[in-house]
Hints:
CATH superfamily: Nucleic acid-binding proteins
Number of strands: 5
Number of domains: 1
Helix content: under 10%
Largest sheet: 5 strands, antiparallel
Low-confidence stretches: none
Number of helices: 0
CATH class: Mainly Beta
Radius of gyration: 12 Å
Order of helices and strands: EEEEE
Amino acid sequence: MQGQITKYRDDLGFGVIEADNGRRYRFARHQIKNQAEMLIGQDVDFVLEASRPTDIIMLSGSPWAAFGGLGERE
């Protein structure tokens, strides 16, 4: 499913995605797979699980950003 982040409170770590179907879904920052500095206004793709968005991926920037350091070693 796709939508756009319309609200986000950094102090709480929660925000709202307005989906293409017009519904709004609350999300937590930890559900975002590839982080961005500014979240409000970002287009996203996500999976709905029990009426909650999960596996949120920002659609801006490089598509490789979705893998966010999977190949990095410590």
